[in-house]
């Protein structure tokens, strides 16, 4: 889905994506502008994700990292293979639909404990430590990337790209519900046993209320 978002919406609309994909777009554009040769987005995307996968290996989990490696590799391959198709040149439409497609891809991947790489890994690492919302953290990180894009390529396209980031982060949050902090109320005559099980099996906290 990331390949469709990049090649059907982001590139034709000159809109920058979020996370590692957006950074890869910027690096590719800068290489062509400053040095006169184009570095493929697929290659820069893979290079950016490599150190982040090392972080994931140690901070998130080995199984997660292996599946992320497969996802990143497949995304890089399809970004390279899928042709760039101009469905519309309207940057707002490209920003909106590109954000939806990208958010769906990221959200479904995260629901299956798989990451599409990039800021997903950073967000999940922070969420593991703080419990904060995945999409909101990604939005802040990606805002910094868009600042670089605005200063380098022009604020008009940076603002369009911010629409993409907002839509993508909201769709990600809507699809990936596991990042939400949730509360469950349990009525029981054996609170000590229930709390012990919650601590042992779920690794979560519990508050006991008497005669509620």
In short:
The protein is mostly helical and 212 residues long.
Largest sheet, described in full? none
Would you identify the regions where 5 or more consecutive residues have pLDDT less than 50? none
| Distinct helical segment count | 9
The backbone outline, from C-alpha atoms, is elongated
- What do the pLDDT scores average to? 80
Number of strands: 0
What is the terminal separation in angstroms? 49 Å
Task: Name the structural class.
Answer: mainly alpha
Helix content: over 70%
Which radius of gyration do the C-alpha atoms yield? 20 Å
β-strand percent reads: under 5%
Count of domain modules: 2
Key phrases:
mainly alpha; cell membrane; transmembrane helix; 9 helices; elongated; Integral membrane protein; 212 residues; UPF0750_membrane; YitT
Describe this protein's structure.
This is Integral membrane protein. It is a multi-pass membrane protein. It holds the Pfam family YitT_membrane. Its main location: membrane. This protein has 212 residues and is mainly alpha-helical. It has two domains: 178 residues, no CATH class; 31 residues, no CATH class. It contains nine helices and no strands.
Topology:
Layout: H1 2-13, H2 19-35, H3 41-59, H4 62-81, H5 91-111, H6 119-130, H7 134-153, H8 155-175, H9 191-202
Helix pairs in contact: 1-4, 1-5, 2-3, 2-7, 3-4, 5-8, 6-7, 7-8
Organism: Streptococcus oralis
Protein name: Integral membrane protein
Membrane topology: Multi-pass membrane protein
